Amino acid sequence: MKHLKAFFVLALAVLVSVPAFAETQNVKVSGSIDSYAFYRNNYDLTNNNDTGVVPVGFTVPGAAHSTSADLAQNQSEADQYFRTNTQVEVSADLTDNVSTVINLVNQRDWNSNSYTETGTAPASLSANEFDVELDLAYVQMKEIFYSPLTLTIGRQDIWFGRGFVIGNNNTAWDQQTVLGANEYSVTTAFDAIRATLDFNPWTLDFVYSKIDENSLNAEDDRDLYVANINYKFAEYNAVAEGYYVGDVDRSTVSGTTGSRGNETHTVGGRLQFDPISQITLGGELAYQFGDYYASTTVTSRDREAWGADVFGTYRWDITWKPELTLEYVLFSGEEASSSGEYSSWNPLYRGKFWTAYADFREFVYATGDSADQSATQNQQFVQVKGSLKPLEDLLLEASFTYLWMDEPASGRSDELGYEVDLQATYDYTEDVSFGFLAGWFVPGDFYNVADQDATATDLVGSVKVTF
After folding, report:
1. Model's pTM, two decimal places?
2. DSSP one-letter string for 290-319
3. Is residue 403 within 8 Å of 416, Cβ to Cβ?
4. What's the number of CA atoms in the CB half-sphere (13 Å) around residue 376?
5. Domain spans, the chain
6. Which segments of 109-153 does DSSP mark as H helices, in order?
7. Domain topology for 27-466
8. Residue 8: φ, ψ to 5°
9. Which of 32, 320, 332, 389 has the least C-beta neighbours within 10 A?
């Protein structure tokens, strides 16, 4: 890993040491304004505690309020608020196949207080509400040194395949810690160096990304390494992909006894094809190995985790263009004994999410059950999803997802529950769309504690404008 990192540093040093004089050929300004209205009820799955949503990491209040300050903070079983994501992007084409992109973003809940659930009275209006964040800032050089080679340096979006392992830098979702609904964040980019070799039909990608620098000492960094090989077949709209992803995390577990490297090495492959024009079949399987440290005072455990995604889609060739997709997903979990190999799946930087609520349980939002685990691991589910277009500009979607644990908690049922999601999107013009999402998560028998099995409701209306 150190040799590969040194290679990237050396290559970057050579590039920036050569004088460059670029003439601007074309400048494009674009952007978007996305506004949302949220109504979220019982996201903590807890009845009668007058709290709608609690961020993960905070304590879910019990059914009885203990202090007057707690009563001032928690006055409803639901949260209702508005949000706007605003983006302005400037891209420029320079000479000699060089281009640049800068994207600036403001994400804010309308005139909100800091989004916390501390049990104290609401804080004053957040000073960070109108801050502008840097989302993208990269330079791309095509046919550099060697005609198939494209080099991209800077803060950039990275997505491979269907986003099962790499697609979304969730560490950048809410950098100012003032937002609700972090899963709606548009800041998902990586600080990275990416080299792409295009040998059509082969494409090879190599990525180095600095996830967390902390101090300038390399012993507390978090680094990401990716090698991805993609092959597009001439027939059946088929694609095959293989990858290696290395996540070397020295930032999470460190202390007086020294840094511990939580290393996750992921190898996997994906195959997708259309046996006939109306059917798409696909599957992805990934295996994780490496070292896991729970703290600075314990010895490491070997990782041995699995992730899988298998799906099939059928498209009817009729007026309303209906589609039906059946999908199975696995994220392996830790056995109850918590010894031997560490078998919980590390989600890394997954870009794809299937549900409105269940994907974010104990990942973004806390539940009242102390035995509940993050939805990013120890979970299997089956989803049936359908869509149709009764009008050219109207898309209707519906899904049913049944979820269960891969490794049941001690003395608990493995049934997590099911979720129903309904969504409508109306394209008013080419630039303006209206959307509405309604989702309900019904807890299963795993949630066997009284008042901690309430149905979570998610209602989201949206207006999106691009320019």
Report:
1. 0.88
2. EEE-SSTTS--EEEEEEEEEEEEEEE--ST
3. yes
4. 17
5. 27-466
6. none
7. Porin (2.40.160)
8. -65, -45
9. 320
